[in-house]
Design goal:
Belongs to the AIM41 family. It is found in: Mitochondrion. The chain is an all-alpha fold. The chain folds into 2 domains: about 70 residues, no CATH class; about 55 residues. α4 packs across α5, α4 crosses α6 and α5 crosses α6. The chain is globular and about 55 Å long. It starts with 5 loop residues before the first helix and ends with a helix. The relative contact order is 0.10. The model has no long low-confidence stretch (mean pLDDT about 85).
Length: about 140
């Protein structure tokens, strides 16, 4: 803000407004940092979705702005765990949790809580994790 960079300050202010709203909504008045990462991730996803819609509507100028904001927000997010590491952890958990004859959905409901107890939610892509569990249990 001191640098008078209106792009960065506007983007940060929009996310800060969401954080302040979450602070007010929480019982103890402060949102944990993992929830802040989740808020930033949601804001980034909204901008990526908006960019896709703008591209479909042939509004490349607006799509570029949304993409730029999404890229800027990604600098505030922690790096994701490598896919190989996620698969290794999942295979380990599945081998411990899976009972013979379990349906894939039932195994999914057993594996997810154990996985997220070991790994921070902000360190992985939840869609990838779910898809990978279903892929591993169906094999």
């Amino acid at each position: 803000m001191k640098n008078k960079d209106s792009f960065s300050s506007t983007t940060i202010r929009s996310v800060l407004a969401e954080v302040y709203a979450a602070d007010k909504a929480s019982k103890d008045g402060k949102v944990p940092s993992s929830n802040i990462f989740t808020l930033i991730k949601k804001a980034q996803k909204r901008r990526l979705d908006a960019a896709t819609k703008f591209i479909e509507a042939t509004r490349a100028d607006l799509a570029e702005k949304e993409q730029k904001e999404a890229d800027f927000l990604s600098t505030f997010l922690p790096p994701l765990l490598p896919e190989a590491e996620v698969v290794r952890i999942l295979e380990e958990i599945i081998s411990q949790q899976r009972a013979e004859g379990d349906q894939p959905k039932k195994t999914l409901s057993k594996v997810l809580p154990v996985f997220y107890a070991k790994v921070e939610k902000t360190a992985v892509d939840p869609v990838f994790v779910k898809d990978k569990i279903l892929e591993l249990v169906s094999n």
